Amino acid sequence: MKKLIYFALTIISLGLTTSCSSDDNNSGSTKNKETITNEVLSQKEGDYTFKVYSNVKEFYAPSANPIRVEITDNNDPTNKTFINTKMTLMMHMPSMQHSAPMTQLQPLAGSSNKFLGELMFTMAGMDLSNNYWAITIETENKGQKIKTEIKTTVRQGNFVKGANYANTDRKTLQGFNYNGARYQAAMHEVKNPIVGNNPYYVTIYKSTDGGMKFPVSDEFVIDIDPRMPDMGNHGVGQVIPSLVFNTNTGKYEGKIIFNMGGYWYINLLIKDKAGNIVAGQFVPSDSQVNSEAFFDIMLKND
């Protein structure tokens, strides 16, 4: 039986607080850098070209990936009005197929041929003949319906917890089991993170219908505890309030604090509404051992 444990942080020692002071006023430079810049996939479908951009150079699993889809008329570059654009995501394996969580495509502000969405890859697949992912995109242009299926490999993520964090993949998707069901917690991109307070969003999806549907779940409470493993595993010197589920957005929302640049390991503690821990572990303030359930992020020093 899971025990009821209260998730609390204690104040970090004065030495760490002095060297890594927190910034409650969001001071520091906020640079609106575009992050979805890497062309990951491209495919021609008749007279049209579909390109998929992301913030990674290649897809890996498990991960949550913001994407931008751009559709181009190869015969008429001025033809940029595409409507009813949507996508589906499916993994194909020799004996079965299943889907994964995603955020449906929405037009980029001011554009009718560029669309933003998110893809969550739950497992790797490296054989385009019988173990791969497929992104199917449908759209309409001048009364013509267009549909394309883009196959892609997804490699296994490299989440080494050693000192060479810069050469590892970022962990943005965490799976867990609860009451006989499988869930996926997705960390949405922290855009242009700064030293100080940053908006922070997580969505939890429940796998239903044999992995073909992933409705948003509001069953949980999420606590986060950012640590710096290569700096004595210190935290941020204050308690970060639990993320609160927003029924309008379907996301658990709150803030995350960073008090210096570098690699941050974000411990996850996911509890049901009775307070029972269903994923992750409480990490004492002086512990060098982090939770098995986690996200991470690299905050660059500008």
From TrEMBL:
Q: Is Signal given among the entry's keywords?
A: yes
Q: Which UniProt keywords apply?
A: Signal
* Cleavable signal peptide: 1-22
Q: What is this protein called?
A: YtkA-like
* Organism per entry: Myroides marinus
